[in-house]
């Protein structure tokens, strides 16, 4: 049983930082390269959402918490940003909440594919929290 | 970031992680080269790419649109199994050409 909490500035260079931290934390479960990649990518999507959509480039704090229990890892990425009005719509494949640049709208789809469970809670004007769970080693 | 021209194709070698933070530079360079060279095919050689998330997918889709308007194509080469996985998940494999065998002859 292990847990961690990381707080960092909502700056895009911290997307890689968060991936590095979760990778290091996950090592005690002896993940395969593929499992590690899946978790890193899901975290990358969640953190990017917090930076780009939650805070929209403004300065804020992103929190990543994780706990390991048995062979499962639970990761929560949360922000105190603008929140999501319609979570179902936001999670629709290819829906992008941003008109500028080139958003693929795939963030939630990737999280749901790579993790076993994804839960999103959000309130407009308050913030968003994404919790993901994955059992490591179940692929055999 | 290494780039070269080979047989009418712009070959771009993204290095390290392709995420929302780093994707702007790759996009900018690719678009600049498309404009300046008049070449309409792009090959992304991912042999130096350690990671890619959906920001990279979005960038590639954007380049697909640009080159399609010019009658060109996008190729992906040297991608790791992890990068191929996310390309597959996104459906990008249906609109780009994936060259699974890394062609060592073309590394200048």
> Distance between termini of chain B?
14 Å
The average pLDDT of chain A is 94
Radius of gyration of chain B from the CA trace? 12 Å
From the helix content, strand content and strand pairing of chain B, which structural class follows? alpha/beta
Name the poorly predicted regions of chain B.
Answer: 102-108
Instruction: Show the largest interface.
Output: A-B, 24 and 20 residues
Residue share in helices of chain B? 25-40%
CA-CA gap between termini of chain A: 21 Å
Give the overall silhouette of chain A: globular
Mean pLDDT of chain B: 92
Beta-strand share of residues of chain B: 25-35%
Instruction: Label the overall shape of chain B.
Output: globular
Number of helices of chain B: 3
Instruction: Tell me the number of strands of chain A.
Output: 5
Strand order of the largest sheet of chain B: 1-2-4-6-7
What percent of the residues of chain A sit in helical stretches (DSSP H or I)? 25-40%
Give me the count of strands of chain B: 7
Oligomerization status of the protein chains:
heterodimer
Give structural notes.
- The complex is a heterodimer of chains A (140) and B (108).
- Chain A has 140 residues and is an alpha+beta fold.
- In chain A, 34% of the residues lie in helices and 29% in strands.
- Chain A has 4 helices and 5 strands.
- Chain A has helices at residues 14-26, 33-54, 87-90, 107-114; strands spanning 2-9, 61-69, 72-79, 117-123, 127-135.
- Chain A has a 5-stranded antiparallel beta sheet, with helices on one face.
- Chain A is globular and about 40 Å long.
- Chain A starts with a strand and ends in a 5-residue tail after the last strand.
- With 108 residues, chain B is an alpha/beta fold.
- Chain B contains 3 helices and 7 strands.
- A 5-stranded mixed beta sheet of chain B has the order 1-2-4-6-7.
- In chain B, helix 1 (23-37) runs parallel beside helix 2.
- Chain B starts with a strand and ends in a 9-residue tail after the last strand.
- The relative contact order of chain B is 0.18.
């Amino acid at each position: 049983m292990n847990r961690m909490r990381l707080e960092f500035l909502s700056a895009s260079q911290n997307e890689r930082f968060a991936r590095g931290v979760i990778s290091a934390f996950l090592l005690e479960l002896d993940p395969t390269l593929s499992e590690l990649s899946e978790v890193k990518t899901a975290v990358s999507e969640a953190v990017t959402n917090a930076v780009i959509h939650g805070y929209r480039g403004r300065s804020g704090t992103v929190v990543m918490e994780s706990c390991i229990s048995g062979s499962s890892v639970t990761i929560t990425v949360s922000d105190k940003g603008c929140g999501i009005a319609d979570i179902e719509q936001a999670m629709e494949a290819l829906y992008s909440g941003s008109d500028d640049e080139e958003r693929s709208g795939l963030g939630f789809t990737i999280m749901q594919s790579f993790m076993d469970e994804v839960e999103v809670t959000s309130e407009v004007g308050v913030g968003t929290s994404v919790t993901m769970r994955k059992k490591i080693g179940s692929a055999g | 970031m290494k780039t070269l021209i080979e047989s009418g194709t712009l070959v771009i070698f993204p290095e390290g992680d392709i995420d929302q933070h780093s994707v702007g530079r790759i996009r900018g360079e690719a678009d600049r080269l498309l404009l300046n060279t008049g070449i309409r095919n792009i090959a992304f050689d991912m042999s130096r790419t350690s990671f890619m998330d959906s920001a990279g997918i979005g960038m590639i889709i954007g380049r697909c649109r640009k080159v399609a308007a010019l009658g060109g194509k996008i190729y992906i080469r040297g991608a790791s199994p992890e990068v191929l996985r996310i390309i597959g998940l996104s459906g990008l494999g249906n609109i780009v050409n994936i060259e699974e065998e890394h062609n060592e002859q073309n590394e200048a």
